[in-house]
Each structure stands twice: as C-alpha cells, then as structure tokens.
Specification:
It is built from five helices and six strands. It is of the alpha/beta class.
Length: 146
C-alpha cells in the first residue's frame, strides 16, 4: 500500500514516516514531494497554500490512501471543513506529538473531525505510542491494508 502524508509545516510527517520505517529520527524540513518505501511525504506548504491543493490531488492519484497529520501541539489547523472528501480513497487521521506537555488531543481530534476524518490514530515518534498500530495499517508485511 502507498500512503500519502499531508499536514502543516512541522506537524511531524517526516518524523512519523521515519518512525514507521524503524529509521533513525533525522529532523529535516521536507522541500519537495518525497517517496520513501510505502510513503509519500509532502511539504507542509502544499497544505498551507490552497494553490497547491491540485498538486495534492495529483499526487494522491498514485496512492492507495491518504493520511491527514495533525500535531497535538498545534493551536490551529489548515484543513478546511470536509477536506478529506476531495480524495477518492480512504483517508485517515493521525495525531502526532501526543507525548508533549503542550499536547491537546481533544483540540487536534476536533480539527481532524471537522476535516471529515472518522478514524483517528494517536502517535508519538519519541515514545513510539501508536506507531505499531499505524504500521500494521500502512505496511502490507506488517498487517492488513485499509
């Protein structure tokens, strides 16, 4: 399965992918769409600027599913209402950074629910909370597909 990760700058998309693939965490800014095994990593600018939504749609065309990534420490969301509905494939929500002191899981969940997400997973790349569960969904060798 190929999963596209979408989220704001700094939401934890790249770090989540590294954690899911059992790679060393290497914090870096994603500058362009990147393909890494079963994942497509998108720059946060694609989510934060509506003029790039067409690029997200085009990229999603080659994927089996889409994940909307929301940091538990973000006070805002870039996802418009029912944003998930623009993709003609399964869309799930992943809340990252749930172990931080400033994490607000309720707020992050509301952002994703407003975007049209029904299934939400709670994760932390640092503590590895929820990583195995998401790995089973995303990686065919690890478990079932969506």
């Amino acid at each position: 399965m190929k999963m596209m990760m979408i989220g704001r700058i700094g939401s934890g998309k790249t770090t989540l992918i590294q954690s899911l693939l059992k790679q060393d965490i290497n914090y870096r800014k994603t500058q362009a769409v990147g393909f890494c095994d079963h994942f497509v990593d998108t720059p946060g600018e694609y989510m934060e600027n509506r003029r790039f939504f067409s690029a997200l749609l085009a990229t999603a065309g080659s994927c089996d599913a889409v994940s909307l990534i929301q940091s538990a420490s973000d006070f805002a969301s870039s996802y418009p209402p029912n944003f998930a509905g623009m993709f003609n494939k399964p869309v799930l929500g992943i809340i990252t950074k749930t172990d931080r002191d400033d994490a607000d899981i309720s707020r992050a969940s509301k952002f994703l629910e407003r975007a049209g997400i029904k299934t939400i997973y709670l994760t932390s790349a640092v503590s590895e909370k929820g990583i195995d569960e998401v790995r089973r969904i995303c990686l065919p060798a690890e478990g079932a597909a969506l």
